[in-house]
């Protein structure tokens, strides 16, 4: 599979047509052995638009509206035939991209495994007995399997970064308000974000640049703050956050080795004393309060939900107004801690996930001899970032493993371009990026 950048360049030069690029992708999808898609486009490519993504096949998470197509949100009952496309879809198509299909997800994006009871589990191309992560599991699997170079997901607590990590690819979670949510089914709108998954940092950048920007039709959209260009040189490692997260030895060692390489090659890596940057119960209370408002009527009506999502919605409905209000003080304190941390460092680094494998059908993960709920283990490094309202990039480390461990780099609000520059620098040095043994190159790998 050619990169998005390579496809766009080939189309611009006349070496390739958008129709040829899309037909190659449709061939690569084949029988969809990883159950990555809920819908495949079979319409001819009629609008061959020039642009930075000219001819690039893109997979779209099935909770983002696309005109004339049915949005399911991975649900048994929600069926919305979109009369108009989401803003991000319009922007991708205006940049020349071609949507080739809709990808599977955890039901209503409310989970981290993409083991969907209505559409079947999405399978991880590295090992079909394991989960690709979630909730954007289908988008990550499609990229990892070499079917598409670029996919779109959403991230409310790690739903781009977790599957990117477990599928050995890259993912970008943006600043809240940076990419419009218009036409995107909500999980918790005050922290929902839309972003790209890809194999390379350059492809992430192309996807981000196409989708980002203010949208007056989205009440959560904000005019971006322009940060002065700078080279990030100080990487902070938040001691309390990392010490309290369940992390296995291969991940811990690969993370440490990567930071050591950075320290030996021009970056300053510092221990960050940040007791305020630690996941807390208030995260769930704030998040659940919004989930309850979306699902209360349907749950009251007895609409069919999968067991795990039904249980979590019931937990959300049990959150009292007092508990929800208490989260406002916690979030304010988190904002202060975030500002203080970025007064000391340019970038905060953590692992993306504490482990790299989650078996399908198993709800526990054993770390250090202790069995823990899989959601807690997979989201421990990602969910806090959404409440910090910061952007973050997830990148596969050049290390052993199937898939290899992943590093998360977090920047201050509106610093996506800085994070992308740092990611590109680490990719150029071969600290991160597709592993040498990355086995998926399209239809030949199937």
Q: Helices, strands, pairings?
A:
Blueprint: H1 4-13, H2 18-29, E1 37-40, E2 57-61, E3 70-71, E4 80-81, H3 87-94, E5 98-103, E6 115-116, E7 120-121, H4 137-144, E8 150-155, H5 161-166, E9 170-173, E10 193-198, H6 201-211, E11 234-238, H7 239-243, H8 249-263, E12 268-272, H9 282-300, H10 307-317, H11 321-344, E13 347-351, E14 364-367, E15 370-373, H12 374-379, H13 383-388, E16 392-396, E17 406-410, H14 416-428
Parallel strand pairs: 2-5, 2-8, 11-12, 11-13
Antiparallel strand pairs: 1-5, 3-4, 6-7, 8-10, 9-10, 9-16, 13-17, 14-15, 16-17
Helix pairs in contact: 6-14, 9-10, 9-11
Summarize the structure.
The protein is an alpha+beta fold and 446 residues long. The protein contains 14 helices and 17 strands. The strands form 4 sheets. An 11-stranded mixed sheet has the order 1-5-2-8-10-9-16-17-13-11-12, sandwiched between helices. A two-stranded antiparallel sheet has the order 3-4.
